[in-house]
Amino acid sequence: MPVARPFALVFTLALASLLGACSVLKPQGDAEAAAARGEPPAEGPPRYDIEVEAPRELRALVADNLDLARFRTVPAEEGLSDEELDRLVAAAPQQAQALLRTEGYFNARVEATREPAAAEGKLPRVVLRVEPGPRTTIASVDVDVQGDLAQRAEAGDPRAARLRERVQKDWGLRPGDPFTQGDWSGAKGTALATLHAEGYPAADWRETQARVRSLEQQADLIARADSGPRFQLGPVRIEGADRYGEDAIRNLADFEPGEVYTQRRLLEYQDRLRLSGLYEGASVTLDTDPAQAAAAPVSVRVREQRLQNATLGLGYSSDTGPRFTLEHMHRQPFGLNWTARNNFEIGNQRKLWEFDLRSYPKPRLWQNLVAGNVEQLKVNDEDRFSTRLRLGRSQDRNRLERQYYVEAQHSRVDSPLGRTEAQAVTGNADFTWRRVDNRLLPTQGYALILQSALGYARGSSEAESGPLGRLYTRMLYFRPFGDGWNARLRLDLGQVFAREAVGVPDPLLFRAGGEESVRGYDYRGLGPEVDGVVTSGRSLLTASAEVAHPISRRLPALWGAAFIDAGNAAERFSDLRPAVGVGVGLRYRSPVGPLNLDLAYGVDDRRFRLHVTAGVAF
User: Which domains does the chain have, with CATH numbers?
Assistant: First the structure.
């Protein structure tokens, strides 16, 4: 008995209903006439109960998809008489058998009877007794891709050979597996999606058959696709570019005409457009006309952002307390093809002005940048004033982000130990590698941040001047496991290389404690101590392990978490004594990023602390 198309379920059900109607059920009442016209039946109180005697995994399939279920709430005055109900009961076995065939039961026996109410106040029952019989399993699978892809693979093209092998390897049905219509349709859909995403968007099935031998309860699957031509990227056609011109859009493309199309490449292009700050929305599509496969046009539609916008905010950080913020963005200051962002933050513990000027994207995604800040930070009986100016270039390729820049820094720290001042000029190279399933809400993959600096520092009168080097890395690892569980691992390492007597600006040194460090301790509350006062150190090591799981299926965006953090900062790694924090928390996975609320216990301090964080730090 062949089952050859993904919509066989719909066809089979329709055919069974039609046959049943022709033989025993002629539309006589208003309700059935409305159903014949495709109108939903009227609703009223239930007229009968439906009971299905079948294995548990099949009960809902049968009970919820019969005409009996659709007409259960149709009142008698709408035209569904007792005689017509009897006809529905008579048609139910055929419908149930068609449903069971979609789950691989091709020899099912079904009986339907109508029983009177068992007692006063009870509803009459329609009882379906189902004997599904043995389930059909897959005996053989023949999956192949023909056409242009096969010709390229056989001619020695390694990329084509890998793709052809991948389609066959990733086929979701194997000999011995149960045969179901859903799995059969899903396997075909996945195979086509792979071809469409990897250069063959016109691919389609040349032949698909599920040859079911019902007496033997076995199925032979045949699926042969025609890849169609391999598509190469052609000219970029732009709509919606007005104020900011087309150059930025073309420079963000990061591909040249003639390169092989992949879905990932266009999705990354679309993401870059949205993250550039110039566009409120962006859509990138490929013309999939096979006649243009050699140079398929890429259509880009954008909605430009306003020339300027300002955002006022009130917030709270467990590290620095409440704050008022003002952010202003100008996307074409003085008529230049640059963006200018200014951010002001005023709080009890932190006052900050930071600015960032970036050119529109240039070829190969490079941007020139001028950035800096002025900050005053008061925490743990310490008052730090610092300034920074940065000049350089940056490039963001979705998976790899890098910056090369020269930076000048100055800092002044007042603490119970007195005042220290230092300046430094450094050349810097920063890199961020990402291989995650989602940049905002990662659950699988890894990220690596590496910061390096080499320069010269000049200290105050008590400190010496001299060369310095600095390395810092953060490693993040995300992995799902078990039934809905997710793990997150983090490791931070840092080291400043300079003679002990050289004065190094405090922002280049290290502290630990607080959110995204060692929870359960104050922000910047961990580091080497001098006369009982915590100071900044030249070595850093912190680590974190966390597991999280959705709290309920009704609230999939709200997760519960448990974690353990450990680490510290010190003058040298041999002096480092890790502090430990443990706790539990809530994770709200909002569309703009995660919001975390953690209750942590500092084992060394023997105190509980609440930490609030937003976003992922990479």
Answer: 8-131 (no CATH), 137-226 (3.10.20.310), 233-304 (3.10.20.310), 362-517+540-566+579-614 (2.40.160.50)
